[in-house]
Write a sequence for this structure.
């Protein structure tokens, strides 16, 4: 999956909007960020713990096994993460369920689906993590109540318990048990606006390794006879010729941070990809022209992937699908607000 | 809620739970709203699967649930072998195979309508236990009207808009823009379950009108 302009001119098309500077600073790692003096109140601020946690998750090498609970089901997964010479490698595998695996090696993403005998392969631009990574700022913090509610010992780790409580029902909240020594989240609970737990991840083991071999990022599943779906290497039309899609209205606090055009595996048509975030939660909107033989009347459909939501509708002959780690009402609201605009009027939507 | 509790609920619903356990579970049901909600969902799901008399879910929805069930060979074979009424742990294959489409739609409808069927089943179980909790008059009255269960809104049934492979593409593409914790949650959920359609319905007017 490559941005339109990346194919045409070798440069990323994604429009870097409000969060570009913050995203780049974050991705540059701890050295680039303003680091408060250890032990000071600023260093101990709960938002600072969230930043440190994000840095640890994205910059450290680790190998862990954790349980994932959702909807009364518990499954074990293994995650291996490595940053080596600036290249991020990651492998997430279901240990006792579907046998699915997600493997990322630099810009290459592969999703192994043994239950569907399918492998999805996407190729993403290397610059992309610099663009749309959500970061907590003063504006986003105003839509959540973020506080440290205590310190406790969890699985032999001293942890800070941080709660992130949403102030409305357009977003979910978190309870995080963040390791004092490494800032890794040892336990995570996703909660609704009423504080009810809807998803939980608890690490059973976690090793911070200095070196993780390449062999750790090879799939265990045999792909013999599997169908491979890759992003099509089709020439994309110039960006200026395309319709510009935007959301007319957004839930409070959300703003657009990324606009790009991509090819999806198995799809012959380019897809416009818009990303909206409030700094903690994010929603992607995918816009794809409908085939002429597709159903013409506007239809809608909702779906869930764990606690994340998806909502699809048809507007002006285009299929609009919103996906995000937010309540169903939020993706539905955003999807139904997306409209085509004159390309010359590109800009951030009204907050 | 753990699997053992799910199993107990299912056994209780199938009248296969020992009396002592039934009593304990009934006490817990009386004070645990989450468990009560799950019980209600089981009640409606079970009724649809068993095509119980007096359950008048709208035909397209019931058909969709049935189609999903029939499309799952393991479940269909299991159901045929054991008889759906004969104690099939229908919640297990439902959960394991991720047929969230029918299940979630049914549960949503139950939550919206406060299914009297579920109340009736629950009341019946509670009444059988030696220390049954008091049943409120309003709930009892609702239970008496179980035969007239009507779904208030009929969702528009349309062809699948988001095939699962396509949804997988969207999930993977979106995950690159999520926060690290949200991304891990999203991908973990995707690794462990089949993305399922949770329902098909019109866009409510309030969603069209905006929030600001």
């Amino acid at each position: 999956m490559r941005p339109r302009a990346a194919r045409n001119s070798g440069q990323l098309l994604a429009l870097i909007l409000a969060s570009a500077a913050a995203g780049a600073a974050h991705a540059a790692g701890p050295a680039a960020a303003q680091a408060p003096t250890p032990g000071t109140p600023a260093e101990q601020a709960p938002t600072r713990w969230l930043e440190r946690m994000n840095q640890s998750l994205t910059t450290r090498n680790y190998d862990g096994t954790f349980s994932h609970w959702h909807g009364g089901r518990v499954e074990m997964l293994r995650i291996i993460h490595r940053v080596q010479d600036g290249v991020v490698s990651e492998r997430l595998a279901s240990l006792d369920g579907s046998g699915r695996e997600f493997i990322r090696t630099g810009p290459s993403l592969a999703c192994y689906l043994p239950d569907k005998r399918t492998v999805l392969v996407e190729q993403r631009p290397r610059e992309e993590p610099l663009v749309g990574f959500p970061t907590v700022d003063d504006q986003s913090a105003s839509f959540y109540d973020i506080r440290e509610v205590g310190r406790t010992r969890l699985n032999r780790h001293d942890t800070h318990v941080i709660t992130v409580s949403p102030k409305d029902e357009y977003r979910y909240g978190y309870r995080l048990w963040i390791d004092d020594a490494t800032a890794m989240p040892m336990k995570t609970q996703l909660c609704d606006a009423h504080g009810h737990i809807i998803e939980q991840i608890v690490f059973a083991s976690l090793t911070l390794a200095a070196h993780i071999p390449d062999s750790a990022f090879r799939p265990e599943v045999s792909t013999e006879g599997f169908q491979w779906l890759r992003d099509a290497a089709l020439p994309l039309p110039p960006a200026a010729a395309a319709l510009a899609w935007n959301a007319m209205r957004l839930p409070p606090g959300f703003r657009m941070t990324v606009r790009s055009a991509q090819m999806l595996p198995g799809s012959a048509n380019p897809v416009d990809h818009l990303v909206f975030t409030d700094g903690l939660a994010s929603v992607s909107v995918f816009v794809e022209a409908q085939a002429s033989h597709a159903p013409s009347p506007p239809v809608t459909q909702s779906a869930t992937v764990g606690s994340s939501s998806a909502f699809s509708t048809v507007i002006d002959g285009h299929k609009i699908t919103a996906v995000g780690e937010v309540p169903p009402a939020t993706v539905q609201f955003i999807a139904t607000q997306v409209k085509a605009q004159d390309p010359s009027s590109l800009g951030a939507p009204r907050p | 809620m753990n699997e053992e509790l799910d199993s107990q609920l299912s056994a209780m619903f199938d009248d296969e739970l020992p009396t002592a356990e039934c009593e304990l579970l009934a006490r817990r049901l009386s004070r645990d709203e989450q468990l009560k909600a799950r019980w209600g969902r089981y009640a409606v799901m079970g009724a649809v699967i068993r095509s119980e008399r007096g359950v008048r879910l709208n035909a397209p929805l019931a058909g969709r649930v049935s189609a999903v069930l029939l499309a799952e060979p393991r479940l269909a074979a299991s159901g045929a072998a054991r008889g759906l009424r004969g104690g099939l742990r229908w919640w297990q294959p439902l959960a394991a195979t991720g047929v969230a489409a029918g299940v979630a739609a049914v549960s949503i409808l139950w939550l919206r309508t406060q299914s009297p069927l579920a109340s009736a089943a629950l009341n019946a179980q509670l009444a059988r236990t030696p220390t049954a909790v008091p049943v409120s008059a309003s709930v009892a009255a609702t239970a008496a009207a179980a035969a007239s269960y009507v779904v208030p809104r009929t969702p528009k049934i349309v062809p699948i808009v988001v095939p699962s492979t396509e949804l997988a593409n969207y999930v993977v593409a979106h995950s690159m823009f999520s926060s690290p914790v949200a991304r891990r949650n999203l991908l973990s959920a995707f690794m462990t379950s089949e993305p399922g359609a949770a329902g098909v319905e019109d866009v409510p007017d309030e969603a069209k009108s905006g929030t600001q």
The radius of gyration of chain B is 19 Å. Strands of chain B lie at 196-199.
